[in-house]
Amino acid sequence: MDAAEFRKRGKEMVDYVADYLEKIDKRQVFPDVEPGYLRPLIADCAPEEPESFEDIFKDIEKIIMPGVTHWHSPYFFAYFPAASSFPALLADMLCGGIGCVGFSWAASPACTELETVMLDWLGKMINLPQEFLAGKDGQGGGVIQGSASEATLISLLAARTKTIRRVQSEKPELTEAEIMGRLVAYASDQAHSSVERAALIGAVKIKNVPSDDTFSVCGSALKKVLDEDKAAGLIPFFFCATLGTTPCCSFDKLLELGPICNKENIWMHIDAAYAGSAFICPEFRHLLNGVEFADSFNFNPHKWLLVNFDCSAMWVKKRSDLIGAFKLEPLYLQHHHQESGNFTHWQIPLGRRFRSLKLWFVLRMYGVKGLQEHIRKHVRLSHQFEHLVLQDERFEICAEVVLGLVCFRLKGSNKLNEALLKSINEAKKIHLVPCHLREKFVLRFAICSRTVESTHIKFAWQHISQLATDLLKTWKQNHHQQ
């Protein structure tokens, strides 16, 4: 493909993507395929001779689309928003076109510098303390990771290194292996599984801190666990606080937890993967109060801020904590402006894409006010769904509805609710996923699509309500027969 054909085919692809997104509500939200559907549809081996773009293009609808779960459909209410917008897509095209691998300032100065400035822009939008911003001569700063899971892992590994060095300076008789064997990380029993996975990769113990009746961790719960572990000779070193838990969007109590972590020399990382985007709205910023006690903080613009995946924003108070843990500079990576920044010391992989272009395009083309309205619209729609649930005495709300997520269920057994979810997803008109809250099997209704409107919420509820009616009728008949 030469430049002339690229121009032609590129325009065709833009038209295809625009049509796909404009008409996505006409597609069934969840596919009708079974595992292994794709292999029989394509050849066993790569072709020996080149194939035409026309043939490849035809196969998108024939082979790929039948197996796509349409995350951007207004009938998709599962998991979390997978943010997307036309400005972000255009920026991703430019990123792919430039094609730099921005592991250092010299590898592509604009890639490094725009990212630094965009994370300062974003930090100011959520009113992060000045310590987290790079500015011209700050000690902190932001970086774009691939996911919140990476941000948690990076924070835990940096905390591990920092703690080992501190303990060795205090107790030189202890070996690194002995210290490692005593290290303990902590997170809420509602925290994302990626925190446990980070501890697994980091080869350290991890313990769950019990959450309260609102599914939040409070200071007294953390202190109790810390006191027990310190008495047993263990070394607490890392706590991951969650703002917007995956099951029900609950918020750990930072103002209680932060001072404890600071006093005990425990690195506090804040995982606000989904909820963090909402902090750009003044009415939700109070949920971030206490961030001043944290060592690192992360949220995902690719979840709710109209920046398509992947773009996970992470800030640290002292970038030297990351650089000190990960810095390796072989000769082939050195250049004459080393002090100007090498983001490779802030992450797991060496290479990195020019992801800050997506932030630059979206923040400029929507503006803060446009993005605030997007968040507020989703919150309004979640309360609309909550209101519909509350009007039906057969159902119950299982957690406070704060930011765009409604946890609900039929009053009754877990098996009844499992059957309801099964009937919802088998009908394939809308798509939901469940969670467990304590011992209850709960349905999660997340407001996800950029294009979702009140009519889609009403349709979803009418569909759920009718399926519940049919299910309860069958359930009662079976129970009566038994």
Distance between the termini: 68 Å
Q: What is the overall silhouette?
A: globular
Give the biggest sheet.
7 strands, mixed
Number of helices: 14
> What is the class of the largest domain in the CATH system?
Alpha Beta
Q: Output the helix-strand order.
A: HHHHEHHEHEHEHEEHEHHEEHEEH
**CATH architectural grouping of the largest domain:** 3-Layer(aba) Sandwich
Radius of gyration: 24 Å
Order of strands, widest sheet: 1-7-6-5-4-2-3
Number of domains: 3
Q: Write down how many β-strands occur, each being a DSSP E stretch of 2 or more residues.
A: 11
Unreliable stretches: none
What's the helical proportion of residues? Answer: 40-55%
Work out the oligomeric state of the chains in this entry: single chain
The proportion of strand residues reads 5-15%
Structure description:
Pathway: Catecholamine biosynthesis; dopamine biosynthesis; dopamine from L-tyrosine: step 2/2. Keywords: Catecholamine biosynthesis, Decarboxylase, Lyase, Pyridoxal phosphate. It is an enzyme of class 4 (lyase). One of its GO terms (cellular component) is cytoplasm. This is Aromatic-L-amino-acid decarboxylase. With 482 residues, the chain is α/β, with parallel strands linked by helices. The protein has three domains: 3-82, dopa decarboxylase, N-terminal domain (Up-down Bundle), CATH 1.20.1340.10; 100-353, Aspartate Aminotransferase, domain 2 (3-Layer(aba) Sandwich), CATH 3.40.640.10; 369-479, Aspartate Aminotransferase, domain 1 (Alpha-Beta Complex), CATH 3.90.1150.10. 44% of the residues lie in helices and 12% in strands. The chain has helices spanning 3-22, 53-64, 86-98, 109-125, 148-170, 176-182, 193-202, 219-231, 254-263, 301-304, 319-326, 356-390, 414-427, 454-481, and strands spanning 141-145, 183-188, 205-209, 235-242, 267-271, 296-299, 312-316, 395-397, 405-410, 433-437, 440-446. It has a seven-stranded mixed β-sheet, sandwiched between helices. Strands 8-9-11-10 form a four-stranded antiparallel β-sheet. Helix 4 packs parallel to helix 12 (356-390). It is globular. The model has no long low-confidence stretch (mean pLDDT 91).
